[in-house]
Amino acid sequence: MSERSERVIGDEALRGAPTWTPNPTELSDLELLLAGAYAPLGGFLGRDDLRSVAATSRLVDGRPWPLQVKLEVPAGMLDGIDVAEAPPLVLTDAEGAPIARLDVAEVWPTREGWCGVAGPVTAYGDGGRAPFDRLRVPTEHVREQLTAQRVLGYFADRPLHRPQLAQLNHAARQLNAQLVVLVPVGHPGPDGLTSESLVRCVLAARDRMNEPVIVAIPLTNRGDEVTDTLVRARVAAAYGATHLLGTANTMSGGGPRVLVPRELVYDSRDGQWRDRDEVPERFERIALTDEEIAGLLDDGLPLPEWHTPPAVARELSKARPPRRQRGVVLFFTGFSGSGKSTVARGVADALLETGERSLTVLDGDVVRRELSAGLGFSKADRDLNIRRIGWVAAETARHGGMAICCPIAPYASARANARAMATAAGADFVLVHVSTPIEVCEQRDRKGLYARARAGQITGMTGIDDPYEVPTDAELVLDTSEGSIDDAVDTVLVFLGEEGWINPRS
After folding, report:
1. What is the pLDDT of residue 9?
2. Which segments are annotated as binding site for ATP?
3. Pairing of the two strands 98-102 and 114-123
4. Is domain 328-499 in CATH 3.40.50.720, yes or no?
5. Cys staple from 265: which of 190, 284, 301, 502, with CB 3.0 to 4.6 Å?
6. What distance lies between CA 172 and its chain's CA centroid?
7. What is the Cα–Cα distance from 77 to 126, expressed in whole angstroms?
8. Which residue ranges make up the annotated binding site?
9. Is the pLDDT of residue 30 over 60?
10. Which reaction is the catalytic activity of this chain (predicted)?
11. Given this model, what pLDDT does residue 278 score?
């Protein structure tokens, strides 16, 4: 049983304490704090430390620290509470199960309606469980397994093919080091690979490494390469790494020594991966790119054994089945009256006739009636409507179905969120922008909405008094004013066939 499963439950003193569910980034930080991976930190930082880290990458006491580890809660939660007498704050997971207690040491306003909270955290409750829980272990648990003087850390944020395994094993042999493989989880990996699939791929390569210690950590990229590099070095050091294989810069103020991987090629004479300078060009093969690997999997072709161990290839084939079998979200967006629902319905009818895909159609009007009744047309309500559509579509695609969605979806952020939910479900996402000009849409005005908006009878009409953010990431663009609906339907079907999601159209 892991130490995460040995938490004491039922502390009566905390039953009436205020509770809060942190956002995903804060939850990631919380788990790393509880695991000891953010040593020397023992909790969320206070205002002075946050300012110091932002300005100097150091804590107030001068110790190097690269990341603002902060927590915000609604201001109303702590109104009128004397910090000296404040009760502990119980932090919960997304399902409301307790994870930790935070002993409030400082509270300050951050932005309108919110305040920062600082203080030490300790594990509490039985929440925070996740797949491969046995691998999400505290740093001391890992350090107890380390017997070598040197420890090589490696962040496996993608599957381990033979080139990566050769680099890793070579470095470990050269150092005579024990190996700690850290697998970032909690967000999609390369090409939409789910966290669980990534862990399975790494475990499938376990027998290709010399007794590695494999740890799953909820490490979130912050979008800044330098910060992410320094955080990884800190986390690796907390898990006992003395060396780190990667292209990162050495962390200031101490930390693992960074080793840069060698450039390897496959020597077809003896089936080994060697330094490029050691192999004549006529006998070498270079590593496949991510795009080449994805293309083979999309087409249902086997990954070559010279490049990928069979056990890893099997896991990748399960995680990324051929497009013909993989779930997909076909998401139409455009003005009211653009023809998106008509085209979507035509695509659905054609696929229902062939029976080649399991379909769920999420039409904007039907969704408003069945799933989003009561929502208005404010930005917040529109975003919530698209979030609901995106969630249902992602769950449909998770199980290999095709979800066809056709809301207006005027805001880029909401469309991006729908795409992210599909990706997190291991599915594909195809955005179709039906770009019919608004003048044509107004002429059609089948529902009379534009006329009512022009007359001031309704507000929040996309294209009249509410914006439409034109997609810049659409896989397909249609304009139903330039051809028939049948032409548009055929264009979509041909595209889906050419890309492999359905049988090719003749």
Report:
1. 41
2. 334-341
3. antiparallel
4. no
5. 284
6. 30
7. 23
8. 334-341
9. yes
10. adenosine 5'-phosphosulfate + ATP = 3'-phosphoadenylyl sulfate + ADP + H(+)
11. 85
